[in-house]
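testing teh design pipeline on a random one, pls ignore if ur not involved
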């Protein structure tokens, strides 16, 4: 049985991945600071992490101090945000190097956005990963059920607002576009990358894990409103006059290399329906 370690197992992607892999009968080891202070990757030479890295076959390095746009706007330009992520990356990569483990590093399509501290930090993580022969996976707005709503991403945020307040207050005018991927499709992609690690590694390419289809944030709000209206929840949408200051509406074009191995199964509307059904 393949033994896998998920660093950041309670995060947006990690929490879905651990359930997905357990259902597939992998031996899954969890590690997240929200479980215990003993699972703090900022601690140099963390003995708990060290023991797990030593014993597992594969590592999903998903841990990061991050949240949705609201969280990034508030915290990414603070000392603690930069310091937390530098410490956890440095300490973790040191252990991966020591035990020569195969791993995936979770990066972001924002890693080339040098005006963003988050983007710069992810770029640094990519460089570590390349030096240690890991595979860099760039995520493009993964959405799904979230438990820490202080860090919620836009789709979950809009759904909760619609259900509780009957109004979707938007942080921007909604004209910015994003490429969204449902968590179940994301987990399936990560499993395939792990299973085909050596083949993909030979390609010397990072992976853009994404659908390749863009939609506006305003359209997201309209899809949520439509589904909630079907469920007799009357919702209004209230855009603001603000523009996107996190990504500054920069639009990257994904590398489509990974589509040779994987295709997403969920449409955007079907994925949103799944989340709405969970919260209602």
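output:
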């Amino acid at each position: 049985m393949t033994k896998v370690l998920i660093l950041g197992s309670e995060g947006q992607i990690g929490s879905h991945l651990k359930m997905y892999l357990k259902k597939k009968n992998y031996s899954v080891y969890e590690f997240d600071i929200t479980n215990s202070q003993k699972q703090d990757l900022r601690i140099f030479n963390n003995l708990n992490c060290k023991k797990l890295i030593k014993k597992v076959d594969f590592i999903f390095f998903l841990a990061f101090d991050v949240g949705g746009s609201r969280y990034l706007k508030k915290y990414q330009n603070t000392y603690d945000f930069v310091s937390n992520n530098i410490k956890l990356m440095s300490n973790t990569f040191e252990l991966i190097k020591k035990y020569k483990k195969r791993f995936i590093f979770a990066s972001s399509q924002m890693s080339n956005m040098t005006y963003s501290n988050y983007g710069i930090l992810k770029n640094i993580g990519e460089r570590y990963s390349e030096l240690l022969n890991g595979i860099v996976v760039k995520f493009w707005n993964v959405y799904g059920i979230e438990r820490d709503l202080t860090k919620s991403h836009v789709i979950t945020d809009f759904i909760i607002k619609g259900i509780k307040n009957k109004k979707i207050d938007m942080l921007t005018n909604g004209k910015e576009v994003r490429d969204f991927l449902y968590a179940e499709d994301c987990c399936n992609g990560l499993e395939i990358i792990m299973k085909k690690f050596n083949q993909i590694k030979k390609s010397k390419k990072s992976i853009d894990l994404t659908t390749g289809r863009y939609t506006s944030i305003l359209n997201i709000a309209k899809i949520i409103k439509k589904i909630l209206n079907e469920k007799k929840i009357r919702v209004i949408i209230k855009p603001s006059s603000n523009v996107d200051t996190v990504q500054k509406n920069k639009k990257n074009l994904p590398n489509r290399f990974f589509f040779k191995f994987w295709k997403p199964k969920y449409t955007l509307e079907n994925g949103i329906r799944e989340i709405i059904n969970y919260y209602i």
